[in-house]
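chain below, 218 aa
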Amino acid sequence: MRSLEVRELGRLPYGEAWDLQKSLAAERKQGRIPDQLLLVEHPHVLTLGRNAHQENLLAPRTRLAQLGIEYFEIDRGGDVTYHGPGQIVGYPIVDLREWKRDVVAYVRALEEVILRVLARYGIEGGREAGATGVWTPQGKICAIGVHISRWVTTHGFALNWTTDLSYFQHIVPCGLPRPVASMELLGVQVAREHVHRAIVEEFAHVFDYEPALVTAGA
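prediction:
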């Protein structure tokens, strides 16, 4: 099996996590480190991907600042996304040359990881044609957006765990005027560390890894 280093970073400002992703991706491209999975929670932040439409941002920048919501334009695919407390964000830094040189297959595999995690807790999740991410009958529960450079991935998935869903009112999530959901909204009360463990185990299963936890700052 291939090696995977898992880094649980706690709550980290978005800019710091993005810098860490870029640093680790550079090391991965040079073969200095194995594939990585970062698990993190962010303070309130909106990120706009390469294909974002400004009209999907429903509040002016001044209002976002008043609410303590940061704002970043980044290089992942997709539209506008919210991250915040109570959300479990995963950033895989993966060299797809050692798995499959197929971006669509990679995104579908990320969806599969989350579907398997939700199934552990009795949550009915699924895919929707033409829409990336994971959905429930009550709304979208996990957003996915990635960037690939020289076959090494950055960005990833954002699973609504105990997220305050009212913050999504400031955007059209991923450009789709559809409801959002969380594990808590669906009646699942589970500790963060349990969800982290489920994500790591299912990620390792889907991508055929032997995972190892490393110190957050290592």
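Residues 17 and 40 are 8 Å apart (CA to CA). The chain has one domain: 2-214.
thats it, cya
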